[in-house]
## 1
Amino acid sequence: MNAGPPESEASGPRLEGHAHDESRVYMAGRDLHQTVHISAVPETIPALRTLPRDVAAFTGREHELRQLLRTATPGRSVVIHTVDGMPGVGKTTLATHAAHRLAERYPDGQLYVRLHAHTPGQRPADPADVLAALLTGIGVRPQQLPDGLEARAALWRDRLAGRRMVIVMDDAENADQVEPLLPGSEGCLAIITSRRRLAALDGAVPLSLTVMPPDDAAALFIRLTHRTVPDTGPERDAVAEAVRLCGHLPLAIALLAARLAHHPAWSIAEYTADFAAARDRLGELEAGDRAVAAAFELSYRALPADRQRFLRRLGLHPGPDIDAYAAAALGGVPIAEARRHLGALYTHHLVEEPARGRYRLHDLIREYARSLAEQDPAADRVRAVDRLFAYYQHTAEAADRHYADARRPESPVTAEPPAEAPQLAGRSQALAWMRAERVNLLSCTRYAVAEGRQSDVVRFALAVHVFFRLEGPWHEGMSLLGAGISAARRLGDRRGEANALWGLGWMHRVTGDYAAAVERAEQALSLYRSLEERLGEANTLRDLGRVRRMTGNHSAAADLAEQALAVYRSLDDRLGEANSLWDLAWARRMTGEYDQSAARAEQALALYRSLGSRLGEANALWDLGWARRLTGDLPAAVDLTGQALALYRSLPDRLGEANALWSLAECKRLTGDHQVAAVLGERALELYRALDVRLGEAHTLRDLGRVRRLTGDLEAAAEMTERALELFRALGDRLGEAEVLNSKGALLAETAGPDEALAQHRQALRIARQVNSPLEEARALEGAARCAVRTGALSTARAGLREAVAIYRRIGAAEAASAGARLASLEGGRSGDAG
C-alpha cells in the first residue's frame, strides 16, 4: 500500500507543531516537559496541521480507505477508528493518508501523535505526558497544566468542544493508553493505529489490515521501483514472485523496491532470483533504520518470556497453519495455556486466524520466529518436533480407525502419546480433522524425509494413506506410501514395508495400473507370509482378487476371494469376512451367476449392518442394486442404489457416490428417462475425473455414449464411445473393452451400416469368451444377429440369436425377454425389427 513512514518505526515520539514552524514541536515521553514560550492563551484554538507528509506512492487499500472516509462525517458524535495489523502492514500510512483526505472536513486541525508502543529505546508514552504535549500545543501555558491524568483529560475535552479536528494516534499500546486522549466533542475524529486489537476500546470501529492483494502488491512494487513493466512476460512474473517472497507485506515490498530503484541497470528477474536464493531473506529487507526484522523484534520484545518461547516453537512448525492442540504439543504446554498464548499473539498481530481455531504465521514472521528458534539448544528443538509429530501421528491413527474399511497389522509405536488430543467421536469428526490437517500431515512427512526421520516417515504414511484412498488426490497418497516403503526398508521394518506395499497396491489398482498393483500386492504377500502375518496375508489375497477381477480373470478373482474368506474366518475377523463376501458377490456377478451373487451380497450386507459398518452397507446395497438391474428388476435396482447413494453422501465417500450415480444413470437409461440419465452420468463423470479414477471415467463415458445415441446426438455418442474404448485398452480392462465394442457396434449400425457394426460385435464376442463374460458374449451375438438381419442373412441371424437367448435365459439376464421376442419374430418368418 505504501512507501512513506513504515508505521511508527521511524523517529522518536512527538506531537508536531505548525507545519510552517518546526520550532513548535513538543516531545512526548522523557522530552515532553521541554517548553516553548507562548505569549498568551489564545481565545481560539489555532488550526494545527501536524500530520506527516502524505505518501505520493500510496497504492491500493481502496476498500479500507472508503471505510474510513465513509464514516468520518463531521457533526456526528465523536468517531473512533482503530486500525490494527501486523508490523509493516501499512497502518500508519493508511491512517495518515486518510487524515490528509479528510482535512477539508476537519478544518480546525489535523493532529498526529506518536504513542511509541514499539519505538526502539523508548517506553510507551504516558497518556498524562501526551495530554500535556497536546494541551500546550493548542495554547495552554505549561504552568497552567493541571496535575493528574483525569484533570488533563477533562481540560483536553473542554478545549476541543465545538471544534472539528482529526487526530491520528499512532502505535498505541492498549486501550488504557488511548482512552484519556479521546476528544469528547461531536465533530471530531480519532484514528488509532496499533499492532494489537483494541477490543476494550468502547465505541471504536475496528479495521484490521492484512497483507496486500497480489495485484496491489505488484503495483506498489512497480511504482516504487520507477520501472515500466509489461502486463505479461518474464518481468511481470518476476514482480509477482518478488512480492510473493515478501509475503505481500507493504514494508517488505517498499524496502526491496527501494534497493532496486537505486540500480536502474539491474534486471527485475535477476534481482528477484537473487532475493529468492538469499539465505537470510530478512536481512535483505532493510534500508537504513528501516527493516522488517527490526519491526518484528520490537513486537517480540514486548512479549513475556514464556510467550516469546511459544512463538519460537511455532516457528518450527513445518506446515501452513496450526490449531491449539498442535501448538500445545509443539510448545510443551497444556491446551488451555496454548489457547491463551495464541489469543495473545493474535491480539498482537503476530499470528493470524484465517478460520475459527486455525492460526497462521505470516511467511516473514515465520522466518523470523524460526531464526530465533535456531538460537535455542538443538535438543530443545528436537524434543518440540518429537512432541508435534507424536501428536499428529496419534490423532491421525485414531481418525483412521473410524473410516478404514479393513483392519491391518499394526507396526509397533515407539513415540510417547501426546498429553492432549481431540476426541474424535466418529467417522464424520475423523474425516473433518483429517481434511483440516491434510496439508500439515504432508508437510510433516516431507520434513521427516528431509531430516532422515525414517520411523516418522513410515508412521505418517501408514496413518494417512486410507484417507487419501477415500478423498484423493491419489498421486499424493502414492507418493507418501512410496516414501514410507523406502523408509521402512532403511529401518529393516518388514511389517511397515508390507503394510505400505499393500496400500500402494490398492492405489495402483484404483488408478488402473494393474501390472503395478499385482507387483506391489505380491511383494506384500511374500513379506506377510514370511512374518506369518495372517491378517496381512488375507488383506493382500483379497486385493489380488480384485485386480484379477478388473482384468477379466473372474475365476481367479473368485478363487482368491475364497482364500481370503477362509483366512478371515480363521481369525474371526468379521469385517474381513464381510469384505470377502462382497468380493465374491462381484466376481459371481461378472460370470453371470446372478443368484449366487445376490446371495453373497445379502450375506455381506447382514454382516456389515451387524458391525455398524455404514461404508460396507453402502457397498453391499450398491452391489445388490447392480445385480437387480442386470436381471431386469429396475424398481428394486433404483431403490437399492438410491439407499447406497444416500449412505455414501452421508459418510461422505466421493468414490462411492460416483459409483452410485453411475449405476442410477444406467437404471434411468434402461427405463427410457434419458434426460435424467445424462444428468446423473455427467455428475458421476465429474467425480471420477476429480478423483482420477480412469476406470470409472471409462464406464461412464461408455454409458453416456449410449444415452447420446438414444437421443439422436450421434456425433457426441461416437466421441464418448471412442474415448471410453481408449481408456479401457490403456487400462488393460478386457471386459470393459468388450462392452464398449458392443456399444460401438450398435452405434455404427445406425451410422456406417451393418458390415462395420458386425466387425465390432465379432471383436467383442472374441474378448467376452476369453474373459468368461456370458452377458457380453450374448450381447455380442445379439448385435451380430441384428447386423445379419440388415444384410438379409436370416438363417445366420436366427442361429446367432438362438445362442444369445439361451445364454440370457441361463444367467437370468434382463435381455432374455426382448431377445426371445425378436427370435420368435424371426422364426415366425418375419424379418422383425432390425433395431
## 2
Amino acid sequence: MTETVGTASGRGKKGPGKAGRPAGLTVERIYTTPGVHPYDEVTWERRDVVMTNWRDGTVNFEQRGVEFPASWSVNATNIVTSKYFRGAPGSPQRESSLRQLIDRVVGVYRRAGLDNAYFATEDDAEIFGQELTWMLLHQVFSFNSPVWFNVGTSSPQQVSACFILAVDDTMESILNWYREEGLIFKGGSGAGLNLSRIRSSKELLSSGGTASGPVSFMRGADASAGTIKSGGATRRAAKMVVLDVDHPDIEEFVATKAKEEAKIRVLRDAGFDMDLGGSDITSVQYQNANNSVRVTDEFMRAVEADGEFGLRARMTGEVIEKVGAKKLFRTIAQAAWECADPGIQYDGTINDWHTCPESGRISASNPCSEYMHLDNSSCNLASLNLLKFLGDDGQFDAVRFRKAVELIITAMDISICFADFPTEPIADTTRKFRQLGIGYANLGALLMATGHAYDSEGGQALAAAITSLMTGAAYKRSAELAGVVGPYEGYARNAESHQRVMRKHAAANDDVRTFPASSAVHKLATITWKDCLATGERNGWRNAQASVLAPTGTIGLMMDCDTTGIEPDLALVKFKKLVGGGSMQIVNQTVPRALTKLGYQGEQVEAIVEYIGEHGHVIDAPGLRQEHYEVFDCAMGERSIAPMGHVRMMAAVQPFMSGAISKTVNMPEAATVEDVEKIYLEGWKLGLKALAIYRDNCKVGQPLSAGKSAKATQKAEVAAPVEARPVRRRLPKKRPSETVSFTVGGAEGYLTAGSYPDNGLGEIFVKLGKQGSTLSGVMDAFSMSISVGLQYGIPLEFYVSKFSNLRFEPAGMTDDPDVRIATSVLDYLFRRLALDHLPYEKRAQLGIFSAEERTKQVAGTDYSAGYGDVDVESLRFTVDAAPAGDEVERTPGATRAPVEVGSSTELLELRLGKAADAPLCMTCGTKMRPAGSCYLCEGCGSTSGCS
C-alpha cells in the first residue's frame, strides 16, 4: 500500500524532507479509483433521527433530514448523528451529513501530514485523504470517539480516550490526582493509576503520626467521580485503581467493594432504592472505579507453593509483615466472587513486554485495562472491522488488511502532531513516546462466518494470525515512519529493550499453530515481522506502543459490527431498528454465512435460520449436525461459551498485543470461589497481562424490569408490617380445583391444581407413572413440597421462573395447544400453571403466552380485554414504517420485536426468561450490553468505559 522512498515520484509538489532521511511516504491506492471521489460511489439518502427515552417516551434527541449512505443501519445513523455531529442543534452550523463529519476529521489529518513532512508529494497526501475517507465511509475502521468529538472543531484537539496518571506519597500529589482525574472525567474520558507509592496505614508519617493509607484517599476520589458524573455527564466516570500485592494495605483494598456490596444488600432489604442510578446508591462508596491487584511472578509462585509472601513498607522497601500467599490469593478470589472486584494485573508479564523500561515501569492501566504504559501518558485508539476483509470466497484478505493497517497507523501517528492533552505531564510523555492503540472489532462474527467455534484451536489460531499480522504491520509502518520523520524521542534510551520486545513478538508468531484457514494470514504475518525487524534495526521505531484490544463500544455500533473487540456473539438473535421507526428481532446475518461455509444448501440454511429465529438457539435445529453446534456458541444463551474458553482466546492473541485486552470473563452464578482462583491462576500461566471476572447476579444494583409500577409495589411492600417468620395459610376442607390431562414426549399424566376460595393457587397434585413406581413417588413428594411452599406464601411466579426451561427427558411435543413443545415435564407443568393462574403482566415478564395471545401479537391487534389495567401500548408490537416489501418477510427467521424491548440484551432476557446483569443506560434508559470490560448502550451509543 505504502512505502518509503528517497525522492519524490514527480506526481506533485515534493514534501519538505530532512537531511539524511527519505522525502516522505508514497501512498498507493487500496480502495479508491483515480478521478472518482469516494462519495460518488455510494447511494445517499435523507433520514429523520428521533431518539426517545425507553422508560417514559420523552424525546432525548431529534434531528431531521440527515444524510447517510443507504447501506448504513438506522442504529449507526442515530448514534453518529446524536454523538458525533457538531454544532448547536437547530442552528445552521449544525452538521447534517456524514460527508461533513468525515471531511472535518480527514481534512485535519491530511493537512497535518503535509505540514509535518509525512508525504513525498501533495498527490500522496490527496490519495491518503481519499483512502481514509473511503474506509470511514464504508465502515472499514473507525477512530475512537474523542477524534469525532474534537478534531476540526474549536474545542481542544484531544484525540486520546485512554489515560494513565501518577500519584506520589505527598498531599500535594494526592490533591493534584483529584484535580487531573476530574478534568479527564469532565471531557468524557477515563483514567487509571496505581496507589502503591502512598504509605500504608501501618507506617508512620515524618511528623510521627500514622499514615491514612491509600484506601482512605480512594473515598475522596470516588466521591469526586460520582459528583462529576451526576453533574451533567452522559455516562459514568470511568476509572481504574490499582494496588500492588505487596502493599501492607492490600487486604483492606481487596475488601473495599465486597464490604460495600454487603452494605447494599442490607440497605436494599431495608427498603432503600439501591438499583444502579437509584436515589440511595450514592450512600455507598467505591462504586465509580474498577479495582485491580497488581500481582508479581514471585507472589504467584508462592501461591502455587503455598508459601509465605512479604508485605513491604513503601518508604524503605523492608518486609513489615508476612502473610500466607495462598490465603491472600483466596481473599482476592473471594472478593471477586462476591462483587466482581478486584481484577488481576500480572506485573511480571506486563513489564517483560515493556518497550521502554529505562524510562520507567508500567504500573497501571486505563479503566478498561487495555492500555498499559508509562505513568502520565495517553493513547489514542482506532479499530478495524474484521468482517470487511472477509471475501465472498470465505477467505480473509490478509494483503488488503495489512495495507489498511499501515494507512491507519500512519493517520494515528499524525494525530499526535496536532493533538491537545488534558495536562502538561500527559502531553509531554505522549509526545515523547507516541503511544498508539490500533485494534479490531467483529472477531466473533468473523470466526462464526468462517465456520470456526470461538473456543476451538482453529478459531484461536486464526485470531492469533490476524492479530500478529496487525501488530507486525503497525510496527513495520512505525519503523518506516521513523525513517521519514524520526523515531520517538525516548527510543534512543530504550533501543535495546524495544528491539528485544519486537523479537519476542516475532518469536511468538513462529510458535502459532496454523490451520488451513489461517495459514495464508500467518505466512504474511511472518514476512511482515521479518521486514519490521530489519527496518526497525535500521531506523528505530516511531511509536513506543502500537496495538491494544479495546471494547469498541460506540464505534462498534458506528461500524455496524455484530460483535465488539475480542468478544464472541452475544446471542444468535439480535434487536434491530428499522427505517421510519419500529423494530424487529432478526437472526444475526453471520449465521447464514456460517451455514453456507459449513456446506449447507439454501433450503437447509433457510430452515435452520427460521428455527433459530423462533427458539433463539441451534439445539435440535432441523438438519444441523451436532458437531456444528459449537460454531454457534455465544456469550449468553442455551449454549454459552465456558469461562476458560474466553481465557484461551485471550491467551491466543495476547503475545501480539503491545498493550492488553479489555475483556471480562463471565462466569455462571453457580461458579465457586475455587473456580475464580483457577481462572486467575490460569491467566497468569497462559501469559495474559490482565484478567477480570463477573459472576452472574453477584451484584445487587441491577435494574428492575417491571418499571415504575414494580417500584411502587416494592415500596408498598416495604411499608407493610413484616412477619418475623413465614406463616402457613392452609386451604379450607372444600376448595375449587381443576384437573388437566397432558402428554409430554409420549408420557401421559394429570395435573390437579387446587385454589383458595378467594382465588390464588394453593396446592398441586401430579400423577405421572404407575402407582407405586419410583417416578410416581418422586412426583408425589415434589407436589407436596410445592403445595406447602405455596401455602407459606412463595409466589407462583417464583416457581415458574425456576422450573420452566428445565431440560430432561421426557421432552418434546405436547397435546396442549398453548404449550406445543416442552423441554421437560416440569417445564410443561409450570408453564401450564402460569397460563391458568398468573395475570397477563406477570406472564409477559416471564415470556409465557397462550396460543391466542401469540396469534394476536403477530396480527398486532388489541388484546387487552380481560386484563384489567394493563397498558395496551406496552403489549403491542411495533409497526414498520418502511416501504412495501416488508423487511420481516424478506428476512428468514425475523419477527417483530415487542415494544418493551429496546436492545439485544432485553431481547435475550425474553428468550432466557431471566434478567441479564447489565445496567440501564443513564441517557436513554435502555438496558446496556457487555463490551469488553465495559457496557454499551445500543439505543444511543453511550458507554460505561473510556473509549
## 3
Amino acid sequence: MRPRLVVASAFMLFLELALIRWTGSNIVHLSYFTNFVLLGSFLGIGLGFLRVGRSKRQPYYSPILLAVLVLVVSFFPVVVNRETDGILYFTSLTTSGPPAWLILPVIFVTAALVLMGPAELVGRCFPELPRLEAYRYDLIGSLIGIGLFTLLSFLSAPPLVWGLVAAVAYGVLLRPKTAGAHFVLVIVPCVAVVTALALETFTAGALWSPYYKVTEKKFVRDGVPIMRIDVNGIPHQEAIAAAQRLQLEPQYGTPYDRAATKTLDDVLIVGAGSGTDVAIALSKGAKHVDAVEIDPKLRELGGSFHPDRPYQDPRVTTHINDGRAFLERTDKKYDLILFALPDSLTLVSGASSLRLESYLFTEQAMRSAQEHLKPGGAFAMYNYYREIWLMDRLASTAQAAFGHKPCVDVVGWGQQAVITAGLTAADQTCAGEWGGASADTPPPTSDDRPFLYLHDTSIPMLYIVALGLILLVSLLAVRAVAGPFRTMRPYADLFLLGVGFLLLETKNVTGFALLFGTTWLVNAIVFGGVLVAVLAAVETTRRFRTPSLPVMYGVILAGLAIGWLVPNSWLLSLPVPLRLVTAVVIAFLPIFAANVVFAKRFAETENGTLAFGANLLGAMVGGCLEYLALVVGYNALLIVAGILYLGAFALLPRAARGAVTV
C-alpha cells in the first residue's frame, strides 16, 4: 500500500505540472491564465478525495479523458495570427483556433476530471494507513513528482517523454480484471496520448525550454536572411545581422546616440535573446558585453544560427539568469545598460499575474540600474509598447528613479519607443523634451504591485467573470460528488486552512522570484521547499509533543506579522547567503506552523478523505483569491491570510482547542 501511495502521489503532481506546461504551450490564452489549469487541478484532486468510498470502480475515466484533452488541443491549438500586430496582456489579441470562451471551459473541466483519477487512487490509500503516515507518504510522492518534472525540464525533455511517464503510471496503477478491459480502458487511451505527443515532438521541430515551446523558421525578407523565433505559438524574436537590423529599423541605434558618453568599455544587455542586440552593441564599439538571457534555448539558437555570431565573440560574456536578479547580485558598473525588448510572453508558474519580466520594470528595478552606472553612463529600454499610457508609465518610472526626465523617442508602428536616461541630465542628449505623463497615466509599478500592463488598480472584468464561473462550477461539482454540504461542515476550519496555505504559497513564489530571480529553477525550489516544510511539520507532529492548537495559531500569526513587517528592500540589501537563510525562515515559519495545525486536526478527524478533500478545495479557492494582489499587492496577501487563519481558529471544534498532542 505504501509504494502504491507514493507512486500515485508522484504521478498526481507530475501530471498536474505537465498539463499546466503543455496546455499553455498550445493554447495561447493559457500563457496568461497559468493558474486556470492549476485551479482545475485543485478542483479535480479535491473531488477525487471526496469520491473515495462512494464508488468501488477504478478511475478508468482519467486516461480516456486525458486522451480526449490531448487530441483536442493537438488538433485545435490556439495560436496568434502572425498577420496582426497585437500583443497580449490586458487587451485583445487576434488568434486562430477555438475562441477563449469555448476552449478555456473545456480545458478547465477536462483537467479537473483527469486529475480526479490519480487523486482518487491516492485517496483510496489513506484509509488503509494511519492518517499522518498516509499524509507523510503522499508528501514524499509529491516531492518525487516535482523532482522528476524538474529533472525533465533541466534536460529539455519534450512532451513525448511526459506522455510516456503518464502511460507507465496509468499502466502500473490501473489494472482491470480482464485483458480486454485493460486494452480498451488503459492501453488505447495511453497509446493515443503518446502518439499525439510524438507527432508534435517530431513534426513541429520545437525546442522545449523550461519556459516555452520554441520554434524557429529561417527565411529571406527584402534580401535579408532572418531567423524568426516563436514561443508558445507567439511571434517573439528575429535573429538578424546587426547591419541589416539598423538599416531596417535605425531606432535600435538610438540609445547609443542619446547617451552622452561615447565610451563603451562595459555594456549590459538584459533580454539578450538570440543575440541581435548584442551584435549591435559590438558594432557600436563595445569592448565588453554582459549578455543576460533567462531562457537557455533562446541563447542556444542565437549561438548556433545568428549570422553575426555575437555569442562566439570573446568580448561577450553570457549569463543565463533573470535580469533583475543579475542586477541585485553584481557589483559591476556599466557605461550603458539596455533592457532590450524584454517581453516574456508568459507567467511565472503558480503566480497568477506575475510575468517573467515583471520585476524589471518597477521603480526599484530602475533605481538598481541607476546604481550600476558608471559616471557619465546611461540606461535605455525599448519595445513595441502599443499603448501610449504604457510608454508614458515607463518613462515616468525612469523619471522617478533617475530624478530627471528621460529622452523618449517614438518611432515606427505599434508605439515603438526608446526611453533613455543618463545618470544625470547632462549624461543624455535628447532630440526633444518629453512632454511628460498625462493625467490618466498610471503611476510607476512597485515590487509589491509589479503589474506593468494593468492600467487601473482593479481586477479585470475578464478575470472576475472567469473566476466567478469557476467557483460556480466547483460548487455544483462538489455537491454532485460529495452530496450535501453539511457533510463537510465539521471540516470548515480545514477548508480555510487550505485557502490560507495557497495564499502563503503564492506570496513565497513571488517573494523568492524577486529575491533570487523569476527563473524556473527558483520556482521549482520554492515549490519543493514548501513540500519539505509541510513534510517537516508532519514528522514533527508524528514524533514529538507539540504545543496546543491555540499556541500554534499564535505562531502562524506571529510569522505572518514578521513577513509583513520585513521589507523586501532590506532583504535585497543582504548578501545572497544571508538573504537566503533569512528569507527561508521568514517564508516557511508560518507554513510550518500552519501544517502542524493541519496535521494535528487531520489526525483527529472522523473521515480522513473528506477532511483532506475539504482542505484541497480550500486551496482552489485560495488560487482564486490570489488575484486580490492586483488590487492590494502581494504583501497584503499576508493580511488576508491572517484573517483566514483567524477564521479557521474560530471554526475549530471546542474539543480540539485544548489538545496538546495528537
